[in-house]
User: Fold this.
Amino acid sequence: MKYYFLKLLFILVILMAPISANAKQKLMIVGDSLSAAYGLKQDDGWVKLLQNKYEAEQNPIEIINVSVSGQTTGNALAKIDQQLQTIAPSHVLIELGGNDGLRGFPIKRLRANLTELVVSSQQFGAKVAVMEIQIPPNLGPRYTTMFTQSYQQVTEQTKSHLMPYFMLEIAGKPELMQDDNLHPNKAAQPIIRDFMYDAINQWLAE
Assistant:
């Protein structure tokens, strides 16, 4: 009887191994216009380009992009629970805060919203990364510094992953920006895709 049980267990392990190895990871991106392909066709945005790259490599990662142009951390917070229940992601990337900063929202509110977004995702069972957004110094060095520092504070507090900002090498190059000088153009999208490919791989390997 014992031999039969061990043989059955061995067979089950063998059958389940390929399923586990090929299990698809669901990455939900909660962002704003920078991830929503503002001013571009969706197929030209970095998120779609990254999904195409994964598929070409037969990499079992599915990206679900719930980014919305103009979205703030507060807007996202009102929807996050429903999105988590509907999508059931294994990983959540939060690319938010730029609109909060450009509108001069209180830093305390930014930190609280980001923290709640992370914790809600973690409680659902997802691994979380938060992108360190940076904003122009229009509101003064004190606000700008506190704004950027909030991201490290949130990720340290929640033990989530701090991801570098994909706009740092793009924002200062007019040839990669749309006419509003706020959003990356079509030429910038493959650059962002490659940046995010490396950044996400590093995160997933942790």
Summary: Residues 145 and 175 are 27 Å apart (CA to CA). The mean pLDDT is 91. Strands lie at 25-31, 61-65, 91-95, 127-131, 161-163. The helical segments are 2-21, 46-56, 73-87, 98-102, 107-123, 141-158, 189-204.
